[in-house]
Write a structure and sequence with these properties.
This protein is of the alpha+beta class and 678 residues long. The protein has 19 helices and 28 strands.
């Protein structure tokens, strides 16, 4: 089932479609993440999320006239782009090349309830051609990708081959050095493993210099002869894996061609000294079988992905409106591409986040917290996989502190915390922040599963963190919170609220485990904490940024879990006052994070909006966020940190925290139950 705009009626909105700041093309994991950062696909090269060019190029030839679809070379006429639609699992371009209409679709079968499929590093690119004037036209299609997909620096030497896979024409490219897991950091691309491109359709395929491959297609509709020697630098004549499809005469009956783009990284993560493979490879599957299955199962996976798109967009619209649905559609694949799903040595899934465009940390707890609404909505198994690396590390002898860790390393090496004092000192840690985060997420997982079995497995550790919140969280000292870019802040009201909610979550877990007396005690501690927090932070018609700073304010986004989990901690008037005050502080492109600056955080804005009970209040917060996405001059994958007065990026891009925008769905019990049950 190939989804064209004609078959998208059930998921397309009546209102305007968002112009995304960047459109997801191939979005698998932090290394295999390719985006279009221009209004028209032909106006620029696709880019890796770091901003480095990851060249994908496509052309079409109609009755001997060549048109460029994607990329900036060669300098020929371009197709006319009629529309761009971003859905959870696919990005669809509607194009016109002379008398022929083209639909170009980038599809990733990102099915959160199927970890085998979710982990497979394969994206599909499909072209669909049909005559617009009723006449028949001779059509050829061209596609290539450069070796940039397999290098960190374009000076690195690459080689290529043409693997023999029955039923497929396949090209493979990779570095000759293969430094597996040799680098760690933020602004890096992968330079080990191999990029694969493959098709089952009749095709000419070869690795050629970019000028020869593209130039020959423009003039002859074919590929030139292979002349390049290898190995050679990626930038030495820019070798490209190139494909030419001859569609013959295309009339009113549509003709399709498809390429699979895949990346086998061999080993994806090092965790506590163990090199781990992608979850898809845990039973011995290699690249050849991966591509074979990806081809044979395309129709099934496309159908399942299309069903997800239709149902999810409908439910998102019902929950929060058309603009909210479009925001979530843009966030869906970005959230997934900010993680790597691997198998532990026992075969169990581990889902590691990357703190993209920040410090490159892996499995950061205050990335897990804002991300959590995404897996909590779609998959309890995925939520456990998100928690497991952190919890497994926290119970080792290496972690010696009475509070939760911040991270477990620098991506892709997860061998121990690197942030702040690391494993050495408490200096510049986030004790209240991270302890509260994990208690809340574990409690939310128990809500999904209907039991606290996961919490029980780590009970002594969770108890230790609850005790820390009891002793230090209700009126926090001069600590960092997740918004660490704003610096240390003593007596942080929002952080205090997180601690109190975390304590109530621990009490709830006690209750679920049959620990009635402990539940009563800890609930009492949480309720006393609420009283203390509110008394110290009250500032007339709202509550302060910090208890000792009158005349200040901040978004109290941590309160959302009181609502979602039905904890009934804070009086309803607290939220009513805050929402009313926030309405007075709204800027053109959103609600500032607090009174200290005009910048905001997208995830926290939507958490704050979810506190609102009225649709008018909700829309007042959501409309500016949609406007920011639609108008931002910063053409980067969905940033979660931007200026509310001019819509420019303040920092951060492509981060998995954007999965937090799905939190509104957790405030809809029927919708939450429906998706969690899948």
């Amino acid at each position: 089932m190939f989804m064209t705009l004609a078959t998208l009626g059930a998921v397309l909105m009546a209102g305007p479609q968002m112009r995304p700041p960047a459109a997801p093309l191939i979005t698998i994991d932090p290394y295999f993440s390719i985006w279009s950062t221009s209004d028209e696909l032909s106006a620029d090269w696709p880019h890796h999320w770091t901003g480095t060019i990851h060249a994908l190029q496509s052309m079409v030839r109609v009755d001997g006239t060549a048109y460029r679809i994607m990329g900036t070379m060669p300098k020929i006429d371009t197709v006319t782009q009629k529309s761009l639609t971003v859905l959870p699992t696919r990005t669809v371009y509607e194009l016109a090349a002379g008398p022929v209409d083209l639909t170009l679709t980038f599809m990733t079968p990102a099915l959160p309830d199927d970890l085998d499929v979710l982990s497979r590093p394969v994206g599909y690119i499909t072209w669909r051609a049909v005559s617009r004037d009723g006449k028949q036209h001779q059509v050829q299609l061209y596609f290539d990708h450069s070796g940039e997909l397999a290098v960190n620096e374009t000076t690195q030497a690459i080689g290529w081959s043409k693997p023999s896979i029955p039923g497929l024409t396949t090209l493979r490219m990779g570095t000759t050095s293969q430094p597996v897991l040799a680098k760690k950091g933020d602004g890096l691309r992968i330079d080990w493993g191999y990029a694969y491109s493959a098709t089952a359709d009749p095709v000419q395929a070869a690795v050629l210099s970019h000028e020869l491959a593209r130039g020959t297609f423009v003039t002859d509709g074919k590929l030139g002869a292979e002349t390049l020697t290898q190995p050679r630098a990626c930038s030495d004549e820019w070798p490209v894996a190139s494909f030419v499809f001859d569609l013959g005469k295309v009339g009113s009956r549509a003709v399709e061609r498809r390429v699979m783009l895949a990346y086998d990284d061999l080993y994806g993560i090092e965790f506590l000294g163990r090199r781990l493979q992608g979850y898809w490879a845990r039973n011995g599957m290699g690249a050849m079988e991966l591509l074979t299955q990806a081809h044979s199962r395309f129709a099934e996976l496309d159908g399942r992905a299309a069903k997800l798109d239709r149902e999810l967009m409908a439910d998102l619209t019902a929950a929060g409106g058309e603009k909210y649905a479009q925001i979530c559609a843009l966030a869906f694949r970005q959230c997934i591409a900010g993680h790597k799903l691997v198998a532990d040595t026992d075969g169990s899934p581990l889902w590691f986040s990357k703190e993209c465009y920040s410090n490159g940390c892996i499995a950061t707890v205050d990335i897990t917290y804002p991300t959590a609404p995404f897996p909590l909505l779609f998959s309890a198994k995925l939520t456990r996989a998100l928690l497991e690396p952190i919890m497994k590390y926290a119970v080792t002898d290496r972690w010696k502190f009475p509070f939760a860790p911040h991270d477990i390393g620098t991506y892709p090496i997860a061998n121990g915390q690197v942030y702040g004092g690391g494993e050495r000192t408490e200096e510049n840690q986030m004790p209240v922040e991270e302890s509260g985060n994990l208690l809340i997420v574990v409690a939310a997982l128990a809500e999904v599963e209907g039991n606290a079995k996961y919490a029980e497995a780590y009970w002594p550790t969770l108890t230790k963190w609850a005790e820390y919140l009891r002793d230090y969280g209700i009126d926090p000292g001069n600590q960092l919170c997740t918004d660490d870019f704003a610096g240390h802040l003593a007596h942080n009201t929002n952080l205090s609220m997180k601690a109190v909610v975390g304590l109530a979550c621990y009490a709830r877990l006690c209750e679920q485990l049959g620990k009635a007396d402990e539940a009563k005690t800890w609930r009492g501690i949480a309720e006393a904490g609420v009283k203390t927090c509110l008394e110290k932070s009250a500032d007339g018609g709202h509550y302060r940024l910090a208890c000792d700073k009158p005349g200040t304010w901040s978004q109290k986004y941590n309160l959302v879990w009181d609502k979602l989990l039905g904890l009934k901690l804070f009086p309803a008037e607290v939220v009513t006052k805050e929402i009313a005050y926030y309405r007075t502080q709204l800027a053109d492109y959103g609600l500032p994070l607090d009174n200290r600056s005009k910048y905001t955080k997208t995830d926290w804005e939507i958490w704050t909006a979810t506190l609102a009970d009225s649709r008018a209040d909700w829309d007042a917060f959501i409309d500016p966020i949609w406007k920011f996405c639609n108008e931002s001059p910063s053409r980067v994958p969905f940033t979660d940190w931007y200026w509310t007065h001019d819509a420019k990026q303040r920092g951060f891009q492509a981060r998995p925290v954007i999965g937090g925008v799905f939190i509104k769905m957790l405030a809809e019990p029927k919708a939450w139950r429906k998706w969690a049950a899948k």
